[in-house]
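Page 47, continued from p. 46.
Same chain as before, 136 aa.
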Amino acid sequence: MLLSIFLSCNNPKNNLKNSKCIHCGMNTQKYQQWIGVIKEKQKIAITCSPRCLLLVCLRDKEKLKADLSLKDYYEQTKIDAKKTFFVVGSKILGPMGNDFIPFKTKKDADLFLQDNQGKKILSFQEIDFKTIMEYQ
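Result:
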């Protein structure tokens, strides 16, 4: 059910009132453009932001086996989080403040970095706890 909500987030009729981030507990209704989805077998979990999705995966390595989805910042389409380019240190804030802004292509990440005073582009594999703490 939550996956279908994620896949059709552009539809204003969606009702995410009961969806809470599995990391921080924040209601995800107001932040549909930022949500992440973790799909494991028949279980689906939602995060309020790319940062929370990354923290969940770092704390529970089993989540790395799951299908992990985010939304491309520009296109607002579903992308594979494991293949995402993240811009860190930009002037754009997510629901929890400084966040890891997701892009499907390096070209879009480069453009965003230049336009929004980003500091760095990272792949999913390059992100660890130290990196997350560095860009709080």
